[in-house]
Amino acid sequence: MHPEPVTQDPQADRGLAVALAYERERDDAPRVVAKGRDQVAEAILAVAQANGVPIRKDAPLASLLAAVELDSVIPVEAYVAVAQLLSVLYRGRAAAPAPAPR
Q1: Do 52 and 5 form a contact (C-beta atoms < 8 A)?
Q2: Between the chain's N and C termini, which has fewer beta carbons within 10 Å?
Q3: What is the pTM for the complete model shown?
Q4: Are residues 32 and 72 in contact, defined by beta-carbon separation less than 8 angstroms?
């Protein structure tokens, strides 16, 4: 499982964050695995940053995804935006050098 992006509402000064996960073998679509406002949003962002998870500032998408129940798949209305986001992230990972073996 690859870490998936966190969307953030930049207008709210880090006031809203939503984290997604997607496992191709398990999920029909990405799932909302964490969401919160204020201090919870800060904690989500801190965990994402500490684990190298990309963060995307997208207020409309963050607001749409925040309405989804935890561990539920994203709504159809978000498919295009999330697919574009994942595409950019996966292309970026493919272009990044592989980490050195430990």
Answers
A1: no
A2: C
A3: 0.74
A4: yes
